[in-house]
């Protein structure tokens, strides 16, 4: 959830087909024709009468996305030069994360939302579709075991009555509350700020949920995309701060180290440089793996 843009020279990875993501792209075709409509007038009159714009048109060039020639690890999607897999460590947390991810984010190897799922196995990731709410997400929202909070700024008056603080998260875990203890869930809208605002405004199933703005002094350390402001954290950094404030300090530290390892590994690979030795964050992760 960050207001960032991809640098022009970033090896953003294979195109949609190679990534295996849900893409809305489709081949360019002419108008469709019903099966029983018979041959078109153009077909009956022969190719000689085809529009001039279609005559002698050169074959289409093969589409190649930025970075499509980079050899990547199939598991972590980072350039194989500095694979992240040796540093992957799972952690436990009381709070959980549900990521509502914009479809375009799935195509970006620089997306950090997937780092949360790597560290916290309980993480749920769904793809946002404006007209087709994810059925799994709707089931989760209806589950009384969970206390979900939408992570979003409190900068507009029309939902001010829904804004809560971190105290509400701690209250949800309190067995003395009327509803009994529940599992706090942080719903992160994973995309650029423009995409996140669109998800927030156009997802009616989020309208009844409390809104939790993240309050932190942290400045972003993310170097793979250009931030509009140092105060705009990437998705993984938002999760780190939420874990720490919710009391899951150890899980927050593991995710923070994993984020730093990702940042350093990808950054070095952009300059075609192999990291000769593990960074301090990488060493801490290796120590946890034992």
Walk me through the topology.
Blueprint: E1 4-5, H1 16-19, H2 41-45, E2 96-101, H3 113-119, E3 124-127, H4 135-141, E4 146-151, H5 166-172, E5 183-190, H6 193-201, E6 211-212, E7 226-227, H7 235-246, H8 249-270, H9 280-289
Parallel strand pairs: 2-3, 2-5, 4-5, 4-6
Antiparallel strand pairs: 1-7
Helix pairs in contact: 7-8, 8-9
Strand-pairing-aware structural class: alpha/beta
Q: Report the uncertain regions.
A: 3-54
- Distance between the terminal alpha carbons, to the nearest Å? 33 Å
Which of globular, elongated, flat, extended, rod-shaped describes the shape?
A: globular
* Helix residue percentage: 25-40%
> How many strands, which pairing sense, and closed or not: the largest β-sheet?
5 strands, parallel
Please give a structural write-up.
With 290 residues, the chain is of the alpha/beta class. The chain is built from nine helices and seven strands, in the order E-H-H-E-H-E-H-E-H-E-H-E-E-H-H-H. It has helices spanning 16-19, 41-45, 113-119, 135-141, 166-172, 193-201, 235-246, 249-270, 280-289, and strands spanning 4-5, 96-101, 124-127, 146-151, 183-190, 211-212, 226-227. The strands form two sheets. Strands 3-2-5-4-6 form a five-stranded parallel beta sheet, sandwiched between helices. It has a two-stranded antiparallel ribbon with strand order 1-7. Helix 3 (113-119) links the parallel strand 2 (96-101) and strand 3. Helix 8 (249-270) packs across helix 9 (280-289). The chain is globular, with a radius of gyration of 23 Å. The relative contact order is 0.18.
């Amino acid at each position: 959830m960050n207001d960032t843009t991809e640098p022009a020279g970033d090896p953003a990875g294979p195109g949609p087909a190679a990534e295996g993501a849900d893409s809305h792209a489709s081949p360019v075709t002419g108008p469709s024709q019903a099966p029983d409509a018979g041959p078109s007038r153009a077909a009956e009159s022969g190719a000689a009468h085809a529009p001039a714009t279609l005559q002698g048109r050169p074959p289409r060039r093969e589409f190649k996305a930025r970075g499509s020639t980079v050899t990547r690890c199939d598991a972590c999607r980072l350039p194989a030069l500095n694979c992240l897999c040796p540093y992957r460590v799972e952690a436990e947390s009381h709070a959980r994360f549900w990521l509502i991810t914009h479809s375009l984010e799935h195509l970006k190897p620089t997306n950090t939302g997937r780092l949360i799922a790597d560290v916290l196995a309980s993480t749920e990731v769904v793809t946002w579709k404006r007209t087709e709410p994810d059925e799994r997400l709707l089931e989760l929202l209806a589950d009384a075991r969970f206390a979900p909070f939408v992570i979003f700024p409190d900068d507009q008056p029309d939902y001010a009555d829904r804004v809560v603080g971190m105290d509400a998260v701690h209250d949800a875990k309190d067995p003395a509350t009327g509803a009994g203890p529940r599992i706090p869930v942080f719903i992160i809208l994973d995309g650029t700020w423009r995409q996140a605002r669109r998800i927030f405004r156009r997802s009616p199933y989020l309208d009844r949920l409390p809104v939790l703005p993240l309050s932190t002094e942290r400045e972003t350390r993310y170097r793979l995309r250009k931030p509009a402001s140092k105060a705009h954290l990437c998705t993984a950094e938002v999760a780190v701060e939420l874990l720490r404030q919710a009391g899951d300090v150890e899980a927050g530290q593991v995710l923070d180290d994993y984020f730093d390892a990702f940042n350093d590994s990808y950054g070095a690979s952009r300059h075609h440089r192999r990291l000769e030795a593990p960074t301090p964050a990488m060493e801490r992760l290796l120590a946890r793996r034992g």
